[in-house]
Amino acid sequence: MKDKNLFDWIFRFIKGMFIGTGAILPGVSGGALAAVFGIYERMIAFIANITKDFKKNFFYFLPVGIGGVLGVFLLSFALSYFFEKAETQIIWFFIGCIIGILPSLFKQASKKGKTSKHTMILIVTAVAATTFLVVVEQSLIGQTIPLNFFTWVVAGAIFGLGMIIPGLSPSNFLVFLGMYQPMTDGIKNGDWSVIIPMAIGGIGIVLLLSKLVNYIFKVAYAGLYHFIIGVVFASTIMIIPTNFDYLSVGGFVCILTCIIGIVLGLWMDKLEETYKPEN
After folding, report:
1. What per-residue confidence (pLDDT) applies to 123?
2. Would you state the pLDDT for residue 272?
3. For residues 82 and 75, is the Cβ–Cβ distance under 8 A?
4. Is the dihedral of CA 266, 116, 229, 251 positive or negative?
5. Spatial separation of the C-alpha atoms in residues 195 and 187, rounded to whole Å
């Protein structure tokens, strides 16, 4: 039992690292990864009712939080290097991870029943979210805003939305606004004038909206989950690199990294089922 508990702790820590990485990686959503890793619903319920089973939930999410923070800081150091050397290949690895976890997400979405209405919700959401993200991407290109306490609070709130609304990629908005590189530099250098206001904005928006999302889960579980899957599809489509020569050696590496990501996603899903702890 002790070994199983230790393994589960490490497994949640690894999930947290992926979620933290996804939160800061352009085109990827920390909330979407929390959903595909099967902890999004419980996370929202905990935040919405933070005093209920506080000790149990605190220790459950402790390794996730530690892993998430570590993922953010590690990526702040490594992101510029990997994106400079192999941006497309790294993105395909993340796409592969999401593909590998999708079967588990579909299973989770159907846990309380599924009808043709829910399939329609998924399709409409995927189309609408893709259209919306394309419009936002085009409208925000080249836009910049001043860097001060208030704008970093807003940036943190955008990251909070990325955790509450699966599929929303906060980093994309910051890239468009010219704040992404200053943010990663601030995190890497331990600049508290960046970290503190972002934490305030992120925590504030999560606490503000978590009750609403938790309520929707209670009254429309399958509908919300299929909405989430639709947004996951949209966000995944949006990060597919199109300006790349896939007939080159780099194209073969993209296929390889995507396959590695799929295998990793399926493996993590299998481990999740094998070692799933009791709630």
Report:
1. 93
2. 56
3. no
4. positive
5. 6
Token couple for 58: 């605190």
Of residues 32, 66, 18, 73, the one with CA closest to residue 183: 73
d(CA 240, CA 107) in angstroms, rounded, equals 25
User: Can you read off the two tokens belonging to residue 153?
Assistant: 């609070």
Q: What's the number of CA atoms in the CB half-sphere (13 Å) around residue 262?
A: 9
Sign (positive/negative) of CA torsion 204, 210, 47, 73?
A: negative
Residue 140, token pair as written in the block? 């925000």
Q: Name which of 55, 73, 10, 18 is nearest 40 in CA terms.
A: 18
- Whether the Cβ atoms of residue 168 and residue 209 lie closer than 8 Å to each other: no
Question: How many angstroms separate the most distant Cα atoms in the chain?
Answer: 55
Closest listed residue to residue 217, CA positions, set 227, 230, 204, 208: 227
The distance from CA 97 to its chain's CA centroid, rounded to whole angstroms, is 12
Q: Under the phi-then-psi rule, with left for phi > 0, alpha for psi from -120 to 50, and beta for the rest, what region is 165?
A: beta
Yes or no: say if 260 and 194 are a contact pair by the CB < 8 Å rule: no
Residue 267's pLDDT is 77
> What confidence score (pLDDT) does residue 278 get?
47
Report residue 203 CA to chain centroid gap: 16
What is the predicted pLDDT for the residue at 201?
A: 93
If DSSP codes are grouped into helix, strand and coil, which group holds residue 144?
coil
Please identify every stretch of the chain with a pLDDT value under 70, giving residue numbers as ranges: 1-4, 25-29, 78-84, 140-144, 166-169, 172-173, 175-177, 268-269, 271-279
Q: Which helix (H) or strand (E) holds 264?
A: helix 249-274
Q: How many Å apart are CA 94 and CA 171, to the nearest integer?
A: 15
